[in-house]
Write a structure and sequence with these properties.
By secondary structure, the protein is mainly alpha-helical. The protein has one domain. The chain is 71% helix and 2% strand. It contains 6 helices and 2 strands. Strands 1-2 form a two-stranded antiparallel sheet. Strand 1 and strand 2 form a beta hairpin.
Length: 214
């Protein structure tokens, strides 16, 4: 009698994937709204009284449009934070499944699932590497989905460019909108597009692991 070998036990991924997709869509919509308000601010032009931050600790009264931008910006930050939590929860789960399928340790140790996004230089390739390794193990012999490269390239444009243009307070960002809005809008477009591509990444990796679950 042949020994029966039990199949590897994988964690369900569909629920985590739905949360990740929903928050990616929410974050993309939030950044699109941010861009819409920036366009309105640029079209309205800077008030004669100057930028919101007058220097020397002095701030003028904000216009209604500027107040609204503060709210939109804050909501966008919350949406982005929720997206980060949901995406990492999904990534952790599919990474665990990939380890179960391969029976080997992943190329990148578990701290890199989090640290890979914030450690300088390492954040240029490690998150993409984690996603690529998960796909390689989950779908041996299949080509990496194009969405992964689109997602990562757009994310780098948005995060690296945004690190400078979105530095400082919201009032500082408003001042930049008044003086030079196009670079900010390019960053916004890259982030929105990265969120859309991220949805396809989540769906692609979830789909290949769902085949193993079935």
């Amino acid at each position: 009698m042949k020994d029966h070998i039990a199949p590897p036990v994988l964690r369900p991924v569909r629920g985590a994937a739905h949360c990740a997709v929903a928050t990616l869509a929410l974050a993309g919509a939030a950044w699109a709204a941010r861009a819409g308000w920036q366009i309105q601010l640029a079209a309205a032009g800077q008030p004669l009284s100057g930028p919101p931050d007058q220097g020397g600790g002095r701030h003028r009264t904000l216009t209604a449009l500027e107040n609204a931008y503060h709210l939109v910006s804050a909501l966008g930050d919350v949406a982005t934070l929720l997206c980060a939590f949901a995406f990492l929860a999904w990534l952790w789960r599919v990474r665990d499944n990939a380890r179960t399928l391969s029976g080997q340790r992943p190329r990148y140790a578990w701290p890199w699932v989090y640290a890979g996004w914030i450690v300088p230089l390492a954040n240029l390739w490690i998150p993409r590497g984690i996603v690529a390794d998960i796909h390689r193990v989950s779908a041996p012999g299949e080509r990496l989905p194009h969405a992964v490269n689109w997602w990562w390239g757009l994310w780098l444009v948005g995060s690296l460019g945004g690190a400078g243009l979105y530095a400082g307070t919201t009032d500082a960002v408003i001042a930049r909108v008044y003086t030079n809005a196009p670079p900010l809008l390019v960053i916004d477009a890259a982030v929105v597009a990265a969120a859309v591509a991220g949805v396809f990444v989540v769906r692609a990796l979830t789909s290949v692991q769902q085949k193993h679950l079935r």
